[in-house]
Design a protein that fits this description.
324 residues; five-stranded mixed sheet; Uracil-DNA Glycosylase, subunit E; globular; alpha/beta
Length: 324
């Protein structure tokens, strides 16, 4: 069955490179809490909806878009840009929303973190219509673009992955190696039967609701991300290059949102990207100015590490986040 396309605040800025689908349904809703079941939509257009949010609230809005879209579904959006080519979000988060200007790299990072594959990211100078195209061959996020203020028109495709659940004021940011295919399809990190992350997190007292990343963030300031967003059957399929690129994205994320600490779950990624001799515990060098705690994998394949020990690691990570 064909899935519908929904437009929130639909307008010319929301449609990079093509006219709006006449069959699209206009909806007034919070992009982070769309009133549809998971995977119900084939397409989603966000006009000025993101521009009304604080920059640090955009990741959860994109997470909501990810959950509403079917795998392969298309997200189209537009935001104001400062014309710069840096990777940080432009503007002061405390300023009015209409004063916020995004840079291409920062928007690309958020889309990747939200579980999307970026197909086009075009800078449109003020007063100029969105570029023609729409066939996926637009410039990459690293491509040169005209200087000056204007809009960023993005098109991205919903990947078989998980979205980051992150936001301002995080106590602890938990970082897995990458989603399993099982977890990606379930929509919850560490969801595979036999994975002991959630039992350990409950035992450690850092969460109170099982398998709910949204509640972990909202109720306890515990965010979740992954070093690599590509879902696989097993983390052994990942390469050192993927880990290094993913760690660079996570570093930019923590520099921006400043969680109390970063807890990396699984030794392989940190060892591949940072220190091949790294041991569990507090790492001598943090990441992006944030302390790092490294702990063993919670996968059922790591049966030699008992549940109680995993809970102890999460308690230690929480103490580190609290300055202990």
């Amino acid at each position: 069955m064909d899935r519908p396309t929904v437009a929130i605040d639909r307008g010319p800025a929301a449609t990079p490179g093509r006219h709006p689908d006449p069959g699209a349904v206009d909806v007034v809703a919070d992009p982070g809490a769309l009133p549809v079941r998971p995977g119900a939509l084939g397409g989603l257009r966000l006009g000025e909806a993101l521009g009304r949010l604080r920059p640090e609230d955009v990741p959860m809005a994109l997470a909501g878009a990810h959950r509403a879209l079917a795998v392969g579904g298309t997200l189209e959006l537009a935001v104001a840009t400062d014309g710069g080519d840096g990777r940080d979000a432009g503007g002061d988060p405390a300023r009015p929303v209409e004063g916020t200007r995004w840079r291409p790299g920062a928007l690309a990072d958020l889309l990747v973190g939200a579980g999307f594959t970026v197909e086009a990211l075009d800078r449109v100078p003020a007063g100029r219509p969105a570029p023609a195209g729409g066939d996926g061959d637009g410039p990459s996020p690293a491509s040169p673009a005209p200087p000056g203020p204007g809009r960023l028109a993005a098109r991205a495709r919903r990947a078989r992955s998980l979205p980051d659940t992150v936001g301002p004021g995080m106590r602890l940011l938990v970082c897995g190696l990458n989603p399993s295919l099982y977890a990606a399809d379930a929509g919850v990190g560490f969801a595979r039967p036999g994975n002991r992350f959630w039992p350990a997190a409950l035992a450690a007292g850092i969460v109170t609701v099982d398998r709910s990343p949204d509640r972990a963030l909202r109720d306890h300031g515990v965010g979740m991300t992954d070093l690599v967003k590509r879902a696989t059957v097993a983390a052994a399929e990942l390469t050192a290059e993927e880990y290094r690129a993913g760690l660079a994205r996570v570093e930019r994320l923590v520099r921006w949102l400043r969680p109390g600490a970063l807890c990396v779950v699984g030794l392989a990624g940190w060892r591949a990207a940072v220190d091949r001799r790294a041991r569990p515990g507090v790492q001598p060098e943090g990441l992006g100015g944030v302390p790092v705690y490294l702990m063993p994998s919670t996968s059922g394949l790591n049966a030699r590490t008992p549940l109680g020990e995993l809970a102890d690691h999460l308690r230690a990570a929480a103490r580190l986040a609290d300055g202990g």
